[in-house]
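Re-run with default settings, no changes from the original entry. Doing this only to confirm the output is reproducible before filing.
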Amino acid sequence: MTGILKQEEVHKLASGLWAWCLRYRSLQGHLIRSIRAAVESGPYVKALPRPDAAETFQGLVNNNLLLGLSVLERQLKQNKQLRTTVNKQAKEEAMKQKWVLRLAAYLVAAGLPSVSRIQAMDDPAAAWMRAFGSRRGSTLKNRALAWEPFFRWLEQAEGRAWPSGANSVLQYLQERFDGGT
């Protein structure tokens, strides 16, 4: 057997250890006792180099089709989750742009003072996006859908795109309550 010391080699190691102990008496104690016990308990097996974990795993995957399939499925699932995240972000951005422009159309129709400043900028669409801040697309959608019936009522009832005061809002709410809208 390779890796097992013969009796002569054990005696040679023990002699060398004893000579070392005599030379370094200050190191006697637990370390020397543990080395002596390990040598006497024999047989001593030489440590072999450990195989690389990545190489071992790759060998297992290459030799076992089911393991290779499960690894591939896991990688595909991770890639799909990554694509889904990117896709969700793109959808959210598109939704936000759509509803920002819809809300901006209401403000333009109303002729508010901020509209002329935003339209005078180099990129008005980007300025409108900044004006509405970090609100999510669904929040902007809710705001636009809530404003739309009031906007239509204002155009029909008062001929304007922005309420003239609290009285306009109260009149709209009263008509909705009465079932007019």
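The chain has two domains: 7-41, 54-178. The chain is about 75% helix and 0% strand.
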